Give the backbone structure.
Amino acid sequence: MKLVQCIRNAATQQTKVCNFEVDSMTNVPKSILSKTKVGLHNLPASPLCILKEKIINWFDKCESGIYRQVSHQSPIVSIKENFDDLLIPKDHISRSASDTYYVNSKHVLRTHTSAHQSSLLASKSAIGYLVTADVYRRDEIDATHYPVFHQMEGIRLFSRNLDDIKVAKVKLEKNIVGNSNINVTETELSGNNMYQSTHSSLEQDLVTIHLKKHLEGLFGHLFQRKDEKPLQMRWIQAYFPFTQPSWELEVEYRGKWLEVCGCGVIQQRILDKSGNSDKIGWAFGLGLERIAMVLFDIPDIRLFWSKDERFVSQFQPNKISKFVPFSKYPACYKDVSFWCDPKFHDNDFFQMVRDVAEDFGAQDLVESVSLIDTFVHPKTLKMSKCFRIQYRSFERTLSNEEVDELHKGIQKMVTNLWNVEIR
Ligand code: FA5
Ligand code: MG
């Protein structure tokens, strides 16, 4: 069997049809594959596109003409691009089939925009990039998790001659003055998260300042409203195999710390391998949905995919506006319990629910799926799990028959797939 995918070449805008042989690793369902054609981040009235443009404008304001826009890369990438080139260890959890969609044993649906780092770096087509793309992860289902979301990645390279970095830093300081109503808490580096020994301390300092000032300024620009008290931000130490040191930035919003991005100094080994050993650089990656949900007051991640006029008509290009909720139709929930073997993974269940819903032409009716009970039989030690599925439509009130039919389909699939008894 073959899986057919049309891929548009970003440079020429030409489309070619690619065939991917399906094999024993394949676990991409139809419901997910159909999402690869949508490209919400390129639809001007989507909040994700509006946010993307805001971010692009900010980087352009800091350093005009430096960042090449990349937003039409194919979502199918090689395992080399998604993992190996980024020095992600062979046994890293993100490589497992329970977390990642494998197209076949050589290709995956990209799990992050970093999958394009190595080819962009090797192309040497710019010294800065902003890459926006849909990314795919097998995950739970609720108001903030969806198996497709969107990321934006920034990369900036400097010649390893200090003048280049110094000039960039001075320019940056000049361009972001006036955006000082933020209060940033720093963090000390420790453990394995230290500067790379191949970099001089001046290089390290300058690149780090350049990176951090860009991101602090960006989130000040996005979150701060005039005449408010200073926006609180804090740097947290993090781990990414492809950057060192690595950080996450958190912003305080309505009394809670919100993780807004991951970043760091690119591993010199990655630059060396892509033919950039004369360069030093930084990279960051952020999730557009989480930020857009906060800025636009969007309460449920599924809404980004809604074609409902009451949603779509609320947003205009270039403008961040608050979403005005329309009345919600009632929800209805049903449980399913079954005995399962120890290899059973909850993410397989979540995915199966989406697939069945897709087959019923009802993929967005599943609002959430949660594990509500796990029971181990005291004598047989057999394990049973109970999942609760909440159904709701954004468009209408669901009839009992309709939900029953879908739910029966799910129960049937549980028995087929895992050969288990429904309790
Ligand atoms: C990454 O994906 C790294 N590639 C980011 C990076 C790039 C680090 C370059 C260093 C250099 P992470 O898995 O933490 O990291 O995801 C990055 C961002 O995506 C998070 O900060 C979060 O905003 C968003 N994100 C992660 N998982 C989800 C999810 N399930 N749903 C919505 N947004 C998510
Ligand atoms: Mg993270």
In short: The first helix runs from residue 30 to 33. The mean pLDDT is 89. The pocket of adenosine-5'-[phenylalaninyl-phosphate] (ligand 1) is lined by residues 112, 114, 137, 139, 145, 149, 151, 153, 240, 243, 246, 259, 261-264, 283-287, 289-290 (CB under 6 Å).
